[in-house]
């Protein structure tokens, strides 16, 4: 498992995949990332965080769950690295259910802290079908109130081109950052729509090429970790 990478284009940053204490939501139909756990996540995380150089002044932390599910020693170590390596901007991911805890969590770090969430789609019906835990009536404006970035999911059976394009337009208009992630088959029962996936591979690179906010991820490892 590769847990450290450097993103040299777009939002230039160091990127780390840490281990949390386990995703507490664990209901998303398409996700099996919660299987990335161990008996001592701190030891795993310490070895990864030792690789951080601070070269870009930006550190992006994911942990197959929400940032609030990192153990306390790992959180303290990240805060120390922020100071030691001169990190100015720190990115985390968090589930919608943690939206009222973001400010408190951010206060633990002496730098600018940014959060993104896996909204996956701005179609409330799709979010319900995927068991995202984000109500159908939650608007993009409400999401933006808490999160500067979002992750979108593309290529799942039951999804349409119109949904994909609509969600991308909303993300481009409303957020500072967004990723468009092509669904990769995994251990869940969710299936990829191969026709939609072929369309996405052919269409989205050109569509997103001029965006300064978007990252298109066609494989789970496109950001260098996993």
From TrEMBL:
Elp3/MiaA/NifB-like radical SAM core domain segment(s): 13-219
A GO term for molecular function: catalytic activity
Organism: Candidatus Aphodenecus pullistercoris
Name this protein carries in UniProt: Radical SAM protein
Domain of life of the source: Bacteria
């Amino acid at each position: 498992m590769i847990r450290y990478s450097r993103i040299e284009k777009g939002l230039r940053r160091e990127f780390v995949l840490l281990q949390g204490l386990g995703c507490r939501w664990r209901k998303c139909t398409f996700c099996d990332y919660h299987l990335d756990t161990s008996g001592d996540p701190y030891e795993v995380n310490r070895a990864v965080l030792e690789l951080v150089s601070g070269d870009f002044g930006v550190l992006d932390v994911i942990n197959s769950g929400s940032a609030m599910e990192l153990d306390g020693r790992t959180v303290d170590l990240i805060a120390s690295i922020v100071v030691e390596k001169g990190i100015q901007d720190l990115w985390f991911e968090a589930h919608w259910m943690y939206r009222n805890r973001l400010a408190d969590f951010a206060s633990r770090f002496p730098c600018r802290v940014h959060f993104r969430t896996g909204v996956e789609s701005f179609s409330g019906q799709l979010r319900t079908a995927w068991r995202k835990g984000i109500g159908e009536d939650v608007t993009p404006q409400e999401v933006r109130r808490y999160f500067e970035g979002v992750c979108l999911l593309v290529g799942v059976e039951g999804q349409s081109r119109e949904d994909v394009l609509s969600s991308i337009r909303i993300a481009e208009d409303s957020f500072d950052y967004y990723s468009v992630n092509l669904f990769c088959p995994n251990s869940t029962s969710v299936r990829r729509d191969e026709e939609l996936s072929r369309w996405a591979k052919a269409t989205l690179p050109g569509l997103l090429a001029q965006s300064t906010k978007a990252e298109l991820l066609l494989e789970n490892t496109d950001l260098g970790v996993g």
